[in-house]
Amino acid sequence: NKVGTEYDQVSVDLLAAMETKGEVAFSQLTQELFPCAEAYLAFTIATGVSCGDQGALNRLTGIIYVLALTILFILFFYFSLFNLAFIQAVQLERLGGSGSSSGKVLPYNDYDDD
Q1: N or C of the chain: less Cβ packing under 10 Å?
Q2: CA distance linking residue 54 with residue 35, whole number of Å
Q3: Is the Cβ–Cβ distance between 93 and 99 less than 8 Å?
């Protein structure tokens, strides 16, 4: 169990190092790629809106994604429900016939009653 605790500690330390050093390195990279302060600010705002935790585009994409999945699962549910009802109707028609109480299909009376 010591290996598990060591692994957990290393993963927590690695994540913390990536968050602190990675953010600084990425911001320096974008400042080098966009030397103009206005372009860098526009890039930062655009990524904050689209990728940030509080971005409106992020929330809108999430809502659309959840609605699309909900509609998809409802369609799958209705399709499977109606498919099951159709299969059961076919099985009942094969097994029981139509209108007979004994469960057997009665033969058709072909002659006249004259």
Answers
A1: C
A2: 27
A3: no
Residue 55's pLDDT is 66
**Alpha carbon distance 63, 49 (integer Å):** 15
Ordered alpha helix ranges (H), 1-114? 2-33, 37-51, 56-96
CA atoms of 58 and 45, how far apart (whole Å): 13
Residue 35 pLDDT more than 70? no
Six-digit token pair at 27? 């911001």
Q: What is the pTM of this model?
A: 0.36
55: left (phi over 0), alpha (psi -120 to 50) or beta: beta
Cα distances from 91 to residues 2, 60, 85, 95, 108, in angstroms, run: 60, 46, 10, 6, 22
Residue 108's region, left for phi above 0, alpha for psi from -120 to 50, else beta, is beta
What tokens appear for 108 in the block? 């058709």
